[in-house]
Amino acid sequence: MLKKVVTYILLGIAVLIFCGYFEAASILARKGGREVMCTDVSVRILDSAVNRFVSPDDIRSILTSSAVSPIGRPRDEINLHDIENLLNSRSAIRKSNASLANDGILDISITQRRPIIRIQTGHGAFYIDDTGYIFPWVSTFTSYVPIVSGHIPVRLEEGFRGTPEEHDRRWVDSIIELALWLDRHPVWNAQIQQIYIEENGDVVFYTAVGDQKIIFGDIDNIDYKFAKLKAYYKQIVPAYGWERYSVVNLKFSDQIVCTARNKNDIRKSTAI
To answer: Which residue(s) pair with 130 in the sheet?
Structure first.
């Protein structure tokens, strides 16, 4: 019986020692956390080789001029989630990650949005990224992506940021589909210098080589229509020359309709 009592007493002492150690460690950790002060901000732009919409200096300026500025604050007064939300609210930033090291340096990593097309509207120029997010063109950096002008059927106010409404979203999704196709085919991407939207909604291309207006029509059957355009360059141009036709129409099934600069000369060719 005495042996059991001693055993229980020893177990109780061990539990008290463990709890005391745990509490002391927690106090020290909290004290250590308070003693770690943020002294500087280190910024890495992970995709700076591709886009330069923001710079490390821009990020530091955004942070130091905000209510969540971390400089001079102890660890337990720094809200990393608020810092990330502040940075992510900037239109050109797709994602940010913040962490504070024991040396007091706040580490920020930034991933920018990747524009795939630029649209020119009556209220300014806008980029569209690969998620369908729209944000204003900035004068400090130009991303070399296809430019769409003309009768843009999307209602955007000056400075718009975000995703469009459902009706506009259908057109945005279709232009993204075209832009992504061009992005996967760099030869065609280099050849298509300008994309213009006619009043009737037709997509029209103006090219780097050749002085033809290429009527693409609706954004559908993209592979097939570009195969027809390739057939024009491989079969019709060698036979009739670059200057004979002013318009190449790819809208019609199984045909390439070429309009000569002499308006009375219209040729219909079977597509291959």
So the answer is: none
The domain boundary residue, chosen from 79, 112, 145: 112
Residue 33 to residues 37, 38, 41: CA-CA distances in angstroms?
8, 11, 18
Residues 91 and 223 in one domain: no
Of 134, 130, 54, 138, which Cα lies nearest the Cα of 96? 54
Flag whether 100 is in a domain.
yes
Confidence band for 267, pLDDT divided at 50, 70 and 90: low
Is the domain of 80 the same as that of 188? no
Q: pLDDT tens digit string along 176-213?
A: 999 999 999 999 999 998 999 999 999 999 999 988 99
> How many angstroms separate the first and last alpha carbons of the chain?
100
- Please say whether the beta carbons of 205 and 211 come within 8 A: no
Question: Has residue 262 been placed in a domain?
Answer: yes
Q: Are residues 133 and 245 in the same domain?
A: yes
- In this structure, the dihedral spanned by the alpha carbons of residues 61, 64, 66 and 67, taken in order and rounded to 10 degrees, is 170
Q: Is residue 91 very low, low, confident or very high in pLDDT (cuts 50, 70, 90)?
A: confident
User: Hey, what are 198's tokens?
Assistant: 């006619």
| CATH number of the structural domain spanning residue 84 | 3.10.20.310
Q: Which residues are bridge partners to 197 per DSSP?
A: 150, 203
Strand locations in the chain, DSSP E?
A: 40-45, 93-100, 105-112, 115-121, 124-129, 134-136, 147-150, 192-197, 203-207, 213-217, 245-249, 255-260, 266-270
Query: CA-CA distance, 224 to 218, in Å (whole number)?
Result: 12
d(CA 64, CA 241): 62
* Relative orientation angle of helices 80-88 and 56-64, to the nearest 10 degrees: 120
